[in-house]
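Case study 2.
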Amino acid sequence: MVDEKVFALYLEALLKGNRSQCGQLVDRLLEADIDIKDLYTGLFQDSLYRVGELWENNTISVATEHVATAITEGLLSRLYPRIFAAEHCGKKAVISCVANEWHQIGGKMVADIFELNGWDTDFIGANTPVDDLVRHIDLVGPDVLGLSLSLYSNMEVLLQTIATIRSHFHELHIFCGGQAFRWGGLEKLRQITGTEYIPSLHVLEQTLVN
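Prediction:
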């Protein structure tokens, strides 16, 4: 787990845009052999949630939020040597954000957890039109599609995307997650056959292992 003092130091550096200090703290945690999931959830995810709350309360500017996001995306790449060293299991996942969804770090972390567990993963990224997503799924034939949603205002877009995907790929299993579900949407999602809500990276890994 991430120590509270380390988290406080990291968050302070993140809000100041101090990329170097953030990197040093991450390196220190990696040297201590922290579990990748704990680093992702206890440091990256929790700090970005805090940054988002500060932005929503007009405590920080959009520019500060964007810098914090950029720093976090850069730091994720430091873990790739460990993540992509996993033995492959022969399964394939496609991870994407829906149209109008620009927050892609959550989806990127989900893709990394798949890779950490030996899956071959295509991370498509932010604001993916559903027609392009359909074509890519048809091209690569994944075992699972993961859809990330951060903004509750895009919930209907997510549901429409799932409906379109399901009309083309009747048996494809779909995972959904993201901060948007804190505000609702689960009751509609659970009515869709073959679609599963994943509340956290730890639950995702348990699902993949089982």
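The mean pLDDT is 93.
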